[in-house]
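User: Here's a chain of 218 residues. Predict its fold as tokens.
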Amino acid sequence: MRKSITITCCCLLMLMTSVKAQNFKPIFNGKNLDGWYLYLQDKRGSNRDSAFLVKDSMLYVTGKSVGYLCTNVPYKNFHLVIEFKWGQKKYPPRLNEKRDSGILYYFSSGSPDKIWPRSFECQIQEGDCGDFWLADSIAITANNKRFMKQRIPKISDHEKPHGEWNTMEVIAVNGKCTHIVNGVVVNEGTEANVREGRIALQTEAAEMYFKNIRLAVL
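Assistant: Prediction complete.
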């Protein structure tokens, strides 16, 4: 077991080293929402135009809605890096719940928009950053077990205190998906049954900020 863990760590280190040589490019330009589209649970609600705003080169999630901001472009093998921090405000139904958001990826262009679409989720929730959530027949193997339509908890906690910036990374290569929180691998799965699709950022009734959203195609 120890040898297996060592080999896995070495392979990941080699992957991350090779990625550093790749050209990361911003997929959010810090000026507007060009290249993204919005989907909200309440499609005609008054909060539609204020769900995601651009402020000081950051993506501000007001938290007034439930839904997501999604890329127009699908990706296959990639390394995504996002910085985030929580705001203060919460809205129903999360007034007495943890602040919640997430990164959806491999959201197939052939799958319909809905809450929540068929995709892998890298959870961004207070105390649970890095969990897998598998939506709508998405499947992956972790800990020698096949998972579908459920949560796979992270193995350790590396979030920073409320109000500080965190860095979340998702590396997805040939069916292997790795979640990294502040430089530490917290979750990993293989044999993903979907390996190409769009990327979306959730709004789930909690105020938060994203910045430096960048991606390297592998």
